[in-house]
Design a protein that fits this description.
heterodimer, A: 233 residues, alpha/beta, Spore Coat Polysaccharide Biosynthesis Protein SpsA, Chain A, 9-stranded mixed sheet, 39% helix, B: 153 residues, alpha+beta, 4-stranded antiparallel sheet, two-stranded antiparallel sheet, 6 helices, 34% helix, 16% strand, globular
Chain lengths: 233, 153
């Protein structure tokens, strides 16, 4: 059984396309769960229009980490995928990824390739200020993920106090020895648009450094713990 | 290239932070990240503030006079400098060079015993970090804005 979780904050412009791209899968998801992270725009109305095919939950604005965690708690599938509300899937995403997970019981996470696209509503002037690299790229991004539910039990929930919650979760996953594979096929399109323009990126980059430092420290501590255990054995 | 010239961190592609026990650097173009141990950390602090490599090396060699072979230290620091260059973590600076005395911690925090400085390189999350997975934009835009010279074409 596959659950798809779509967290959304003020995504009225794109949420319908995201949901349609899930409903259009050649292998349908068993449940689609939208978590509204306190949107103040027309997101709720649009999502309600898809009920009962889509399950709808609302939380006060607690951020994407908390929305993803709520989605995991509110879903039942033994395989879980996420889609950010501004991205969209190609129709064979779930079919190919489920086949990959089913074929290899030792595999924990399956990703895919992505391609970026300029959101069509951008003005010519605005679009001209962006370089949208349309190269198809291997992408361990959350919109590309299909994972076994037990993976989240093993690695733990997403952190709710940071912006790069999936980078942090993925680092913990690597430390836990998760096995992952990136399918060599384009299955997800990443939208480049106005709303992902903020001025916070420098903070995010510095956050990456702190997450990497914490991961290095955990790995070293585990290694020295293992060495101490080896010495005692 | 002259080691008498000043260099600087290759920002904004490269970001770093000194955590006290190590410097962690991240190159967002390659997605690779790095750790510099205590001696490498002091070398980085001096280099990224514009002290010319030759001056840093001379200072560190002097500091270990009598306890370690100066020619070995100079060679080790030269290797570290070349590695920082080849990983594109630094670039030539157009600012005037700064003296080593502007970086007082190089005098006070050098490890008591010399050990070859190590730049540890990690690429386990490179594919992810290259994609700038958090959908946000920096001072230079995300993805990058068209450079001015291309806008004029």
């Amino acid at each position: 059984m596959i659950s798809v979780i779509i967290p959304v904050l003020n995504g009225e412009a794109y949420i319908a396309q995201a949901i349609e791209s899930v409903l259009d899968q050649t292998l349908p998801a068993d449940e689609v769960v939208v978590i509204n992270d306190g949107s103040s725009d027309g997101t709720a109305e649009i999502v309600r229009g898809y009920q009962p095919r889509v399950l709808y939950h609302r939380q006060p604005n607690l951020g994407p980490g908390a929305a993803r965690n709520l989605g995991i708690r509110e879903s039942k599938g033994d395989q879980v995928a996420f889609l950010d509300a501004d991205d969209r899937w190609l129709p064979n995403k779930l079919a190919l990824q489920k086949a990959a997970l089913d074929a290899d019981p030792a595999l924990d996470l399956v990703f895919s390739h992505t391609r970026q696209f300029l959101s069509p509503e951008l003005s010519e002037e605005h679009a001209a200020t962006l370089i949208c690299d349309e190269t198809v790229q291997p992408s361990p991004l959350i919109s590309c993920l299909l994972a076994r539910r037990e993976t989240f039990e093993r690695v733990g929930p997403f952190r709710t106090d940071i912006k790069a919650e999936f980078v942090e979760w993925y680092l913990r996953g690597l430390e836990a020895g998760l096995r992952m594979r990136i399918l060599d096929v384009l299955l997800v399109e990443r939208r480049i648009h106005t709303a992902n323009f903020t001025l916070k990126n420098r903070d995010v980059r510095l956050e990456y450094l702190r997450l990497l430092k914490a991961s290095l420290d955990r790995r070293r501590s585990r290694m020295s713990g293992n060495a101490a255990a080896g010495a005692l054995a | 290239m002259s080691q008498d010239q000043p260099f600087e961190c290759n920002a904004p592609d490269v970001v770093f932070e000194n955590f006290g026990d190590e410097v962690v650097l991240l190159n967002l173009q390659s997605g690779r990240y790095y750790s510099l141990d205590p001696l490498g950390m002091l070398y980085w602090e001096s280099l990224s503030r514009g002290v010319p490599p030759r001056e840093i090396a001379a200072h560190i060699v002097r500091s270990y006079t009598g306890s370690a072979d100066g020619s070995v230290i100079a060679k080790d620091l030269d290797d570290l400098f070349l590695e920082l260059r080849s990983e594109q973590l630094i670039r030539r600076s157009s600012n005037p060079p700064r003296p080593i005395s502007d970086v007082p911690e190089v005098g006070t925090k050098l490890p008591a015993e010399y050990a070859r400085p190590v730049l540890s390189i990690f690429d386990d999350v490179a594919e992810m970090l290259m994609l700038d997975p958090v959908h946000e934009v920096g001072e230079v835009g995300w993805p990058q804005p068209v450079p001015l010279d291309r806008k004029q074409e």
